[in-house]
Design a protein that fits this description.
There is one protein chain. With about 550 residues, this protein is of the alpha/beta class. Strand 9 and strand 10 (about 165-175) form a beta hairpin. It has a domain at about 410-544: Glutaredoxin (3-Layer(aba) Sandwich). The two termini are about 35 Å apart. It has helices spanning about 15-30, 55-60, 65-70, 120-130, 185-190, 255-265, 310-330, 335-360, 380-400, 405-410, 455, 470-485, 500, 525-530, 540-544, and strands at about 10-15, 35, 50, 80-85, 95, 115, 135-140, 140-150, 155-160, 165-175, 190-205, 220-225, 230-240, 240-250, 275-285, 290, 295, 305, 460-465, 490, 505-510, 515-520.
């Protein structure tokens, strides 16, 4: 309706990393957002620690990667390893070096290495960025208590948590990034399917003065303690001598018992100051669908799974990126209903692959690798260590070496992706082979020592020219895109090996860096625009 008032283009419920990432993606595209958070600040629990290579690439797009590096508690020379051992100062049984591709170095397949940083610090960086955006309003102590929608927008009722004062807001769309107990999801009546209550654990955040500086300590991101009396995981959490201790335990297990387990795992007389305790239960659940009209779900509101593998927060941020450019497309007038439907189609299949892997990861915890002979003497000890090392390598490699899952997860059957018809290759969790097949992440390359191919991509669509220019066809496509209000730019990097990597003269790269189409000759503009805008039916997708 002409002249209708909206308080924002998008109302985002939840100021965790997912909601803040969505706000960042939308404001970058010129959209107005309002973020409401029922807590009085960003998160205080440690939760996620792994900001993976894909999320760090998004941080690069947003201009936040350097802040992430500077505010990580780990120095560049800190070993990004995962060690399995019977005690914190015992000889390693098995070590995963460069876990999660987190070592500060240049990798060919992606532009940013992973970073280890507490989730509350990540949230703080994103919150500061959003708060500085003129197009965004970030408010805490505000709780969504009701909403309804009509043909043009969503009406939301919000209550001030401390004062009880109620206010109404109207936005064109609403996104529930409000966690595993999502009010938005429950209000829509959307179900979650999968496995519940797989395992319960407790995490203690401890201040342990001096432990980081012990000269006998072999440093690592995670120390998996494989001892019958102290099976669990311990590692550095943040600056200020903060460590975490995680153990499978029910909520009824006394904190003092957990502290004694931590003391046994450390094996030396260090004072332990308890900062907080966080009890959590692993579920493997995916929502039936992620959209109801003008209302969407993102992050834990639509998928829950084991944290083992470090995929949770990162998948949620991936949701924000996918949804962000599509909402912006609709708000700009060139995206339609089917493009919004593609959000569920694409992200739900990605989540299924992640949930499957994370569920397998949680099936093998520290206590599975314990053996009394690991602490024995002589041949029995060596035999036990060999057995344990072989089991750890077999069962835990997908958890700490998951580059194939992180970068090789692809979209199929989407109206915003062309179809090459040949059967897709199965995802190999620990092995990544770049592919420019539509639906896959654009293969990466370095232009020079500092410039990534991704740095050349537009925040809209990019037509990547890798062969001889088809000037007439290019001009027609650019003109048609401009007429529809679609941002499209042509990029032609001078890298001779790039055409072989993409196996085509042209590729259309989406705003989220995924391939929408590739080919040796540009089809008529209407065909490509149908794919780019999500209007492609099965026949068009195959012709493209």
């Amino acid at each position: 309706m002409a002249g209708e008032h909206f308080d924002a283009d998008v109302l985002i419920v939840g100021a965790g990393p997912v909601g803040l990432a969505l706000a960042t993606e939308l404001t970058m595209r010129g959209r107005t957002v309002r973020v409401v958070e029922k807590n009085d600040r960003t998160g205080v629990q440690p939760r996620a620690k792994t900001t993976n290579i894909r999320t760090m690439t998004h941080m690069r797009r947003w201009g936040l990667a350097q802040q992430m590096r500077e505010r990580s508690p780990l120095s560049p020379d800190f070993p990004r390893d995962v060690i399995f051992r019977t005690g914190l100062f015992d000889e390693p049984v098995y070590t995963f070096n460069d876990a999660f591709c987190a070592t500060p170095q240049t990798y060919e397949a992606f532009p940013e290495h992973a970073e280890f940083i507490p989730q509350y610090v990540v949230e703080g960086i994103l919150a500061e960025h959003v708060a500085d955006e003129q197009l965004a309003e970030l408010t805490f102590d505000r709780e969504l208590i009701g909403f309804d929608q009509d043909d043009t927008g969503v009406n939301a009722l919000v209550r001030h948590v401390r004062t009880g004062e109620e206010s109404t807001f109207r936005a064109r769309h609403l996104v529930g990034a409000d966690g595993g107990r999502s009010f938005v999801r429950d209000s829509l009546g959307i179900g979650m399917n999968g496995q519940r209550d797989i395992v319960s654990s407790a995490t203690l955040i401890l201040r342990i003065p001096g432990l980081n500086d012990d000269p006998d300590l072999i440093k690592a991101l995670f120390h998996w303690i494989v001892d019958e009396e102290a099976a669990g995981i311990i590692g550095p959490m943040d600056r200020g001598d903060l460590w975490y201790w995680t153990k499978v335990a029910g909520w009824d297990v006394a904190t003092e018992v957990l502290l004694e387990n931590a003391r046994a795992a450390i094996g030396r007389d260090y004072p332990l100051e308890l900062i907080t305790r966080d009890d959590w239960t692993v579920h493997s659940l995916i929502a039936d669908h992620y959209r109801e009209g003008r209302v969407f779900l993102a992050g834990d509101a639509c998928h829950l799974h084991s944290p083992f593998g470090g995929h949770g927060m990162n998948q949620g941020i991936g949701d924000a990126v996918d949804l962000g450019w599509k909402l912006s497309a609709v708000l700009e007038g060139w995206g339609g209903d089917r493009l919004l439907d593609s959000y569920t189609i694409e992200r739900q299949q990605a989540h299924r692959a992640i949930v499957d892997s994370a569920t397998k990861n949680v099936a093998s915890l520290s206590d599975q690798f314990t053996d009394p002979d690991l602490s024995a003497d002589g041949p029995a000890r060596e035999a036990a260590r060999q057995r344990a090392a072989e089991a750890i390598e077999r069962l835990k490699t997908p958890e700490f070496r998951s580059v194939g899952l992180v970068l090789g997860n692809y979209y199929a059957g989407s109206p915003a992706i062309a179809d090459e018809q040949a059967p897709p290759q199965p995802i190999e969790v620990s092995h990544y082979v770049p592919s420019a097949r539509p639906g896959h992440l654009a293969p990466h390359a370095w232009i020079d020592e500092r410039t990534s191919l991704y740095d050349l991509f537009s925040i809209g669509f990019t037509l990547l020219r890798l062969g001889e220019a088809q000037q007439g066809a290019e001009a027609s496509l650019l003109e048609a895109a401009r007429a529809d209000g679609i941002s499209l730019q042509v990029v032609s990097p001078e890298l001779p090996d790039l055409k072989q990597l993409y196996e085509a003269n042209y590729a259309v790269v989406r705003p989220d860096q995924y391939i929408a189409w590739r080919g040796n000759a540009l089809p008529v503009p209407e065909t490509l625009l149908a794919v780019m805008t999500g209007r492609a039916n099965e026949n068009i997708r195959r012709i493209a």
